[in-house]
What we know:
Low-confidence stretches: 1-24, 32-36
Shape: elongated
Strand content: 25-35%
Distance between the termini: 45 Å
Order of helices and strands: EHEEHEEEEEEEHH
Radius of gyration: 21 Å
Strand order of the largest sheet: 1-4-2-3
CATH architecture of the largest domain: Roll
Number of strands: 10
Amino acid sequence: MDVNATVFFNGILDYFSVQRFMSYELATVICKIDMSCAVISLPVACLTLLVMSIERYHAVAIIQFRSVELSTVGDNVAVRIPDVDRAKGDHRNLIAVVLERTAEGYYRLGTSAGILKSLYSIAQFESCEKHFMSLNDVYKNNQVSLRQAATFVSVGKGQGVFHRNCKRNCSSKICKCRASMVLCNSRCHQSMPCTNKG
């Protein structure tokens, strides 16, 4: 991450310090409220709302500004695939091509599985230096979710992990894992007794 400037705010944020860095496209914000800490990447234009919410909680915020190149049509980008949408052996990122940039600053992305249904902000993907696919490689007749696109490029059958919240001992088909003929795992229920763990 190319950090051009770091501004420390304690309690009340200095609005003019934020205005000084409005030329940057993206800010990585580390908000520390009590003992919890959150790291957020967001467009700098959203910082004014963040200023008000942090002032309300008297939080300590560290705001790092970085310059980001805006992606153009045809650029390759890497979209992070959430853990619940991919199998353990699959890639963490999905390679996509920028199809268009909307007037609001969001991007429509295309993959070999189809066009992604959601629009993405520049904070949700990273630009690739090399070109892995072109606009011609995008299957434009199909709209898919990120999970469906991840399943399409998966080395296996996709996600492969069931997130269930079993309340009993999984002895009947009420347990969705048993009904699917899949063994329960630690993500289903961590401390409950289970007869479907194999």
